[in-house]
Predict the structure.
Amino acid sequence: MNALGIDIGGTGIKGAVVDTTTGRVITDRYRLLTPKPATAMAVIETVRAIQTHFSWSGPIGIGLPSVIQRGVPKTAAHISDEWIGLNAEDRFSDGLATSVTLLNDADAAGLAELRFGAGRQRSGTVLMVTLGTGIGSALLIDGQLVPNTEFGHLKMGDFEAEDYAADSIRKKQALDWPVWAGRLNEVLEAYEALLWPDLIILGGGGSKKYNKYQHLLKTKAAIAVAEFGNMAGIIGAAIAAAQSVSEN
Ligand code: BGC
């Protein structure tokens, strides 16, 4: 089944049509700026423009930087607080006149990597960590997603993990690779102490420069870099949409 995957971030909203049986992106990637403020109405309008770009009327999966429970965002990072508590899945379905599935953006990326990317055919505990504006997480146990883990908010002393070691912090504080990798090691060590993952997949913008800090990482678990890079969120959102259509 083909589905349109959408990845909503603080700066851009990106979409592409994905063949969810292979994970292949079958169109170009279309990106529009996230409206400011990123209110529900404005974001739905932007997603509608992407839908129109692809003349798409089939199922749509949308990844948001939010905890999502039964279609309702419970948190909102880098988007308007207005989303919290809103029945967003219904709003999107109404606004886009098709079936819409919402999930956390890192969960979407994790689904894509587990199904078709760096974690394919891996059983056991796989932890996907996205290093971008914030830190996102997806926990996959024997192929099953445990949604909304939000490990980017784990307290590390006075800081939350993402305020200490996100890729945006490296840039903002002009941290050199050894210093930033040291922070990332502390964060990954905390995750490992709690979860003992077999594999950690690093994704997001910060995984693109993996060769700069690969030799500095000290995890017990094997590390792999996300194969789909910044497309993982789009691909995973499409997979989630196809899954919920076939379940209903
Ligand atoms: C949000 C998560 C999101 C992550 C990556 C965090 O700030 O709380 O929901 O997955 O950023 O975008």
Q: What stands out?
A: The longest strand covers residues 12-19.
